[in-house]
Amino acid sequence: VECKLCEWAIYPSPIALLCPALCVNFLTVLHRLLSHTVKPRAVVMSEPKAPTPTPGDTYKGWLFKWTNYIKGYQRRWFVLSNGLLSYYRTQAEMGHTCRGTINLATANIAVEDSCNFVISNGGAQTYHLKASSEVERQRWITALELAKAKAVRMQAESGQSQLGFTEGVQSTLRTLGSKVEDLSTCNDLIAKHGSALQRSLSELEGVKLGGDTSDKIRQVTERATLFRITSNAMINACRDFLALAQAHSKRWQKALQAERDQRVRLEETLEQLAKQHNHLERAFRGATVLPASPSNPTADSKGPGKGDASDDDDNEFFDACEDVQEFITIPADPKYHRSSPSPFFLLRSPQSQEVVPVRKRRTRIPDKPNYSLNLWSIMKNCIGKELSKIPMPVNFNEPISMLQRLSEDLEYSELLDRGAKCQSSLEQLCYVAAFTVSSYSTTVHRTGKPFNPLLGETFELDRLQESGYRSLCEQVSHHPPAAAHHVISERGWTLRQEITVASKFRGKYLSIMPLGSIHCIFDKSNNHYSWKKVTTTVHNIIVGKLWIDQSGEIDVINHRTGDRCHLKFAPYSYFSRDVARKVTGVVTDKDGKAHYVLSGTWDEKMECSRVMQSSRGGENGTEGRQKTVYQTLKARELWRKNPLPEGAENMYYFTQLALTLNEQEDGVAPTDSRRRPDQRLMEQGMWDEANAEKQRLEEKQRSVRREREREAVRLASTAEEGAPQDNYTALWFEQVVDEATGEPTHIYKGGYWETKEQGTWENCPDIF
Question: Which in 142, 154, 183, 465 has the greatest CB count within 10 A?
Answer without folding.
Answer: 142
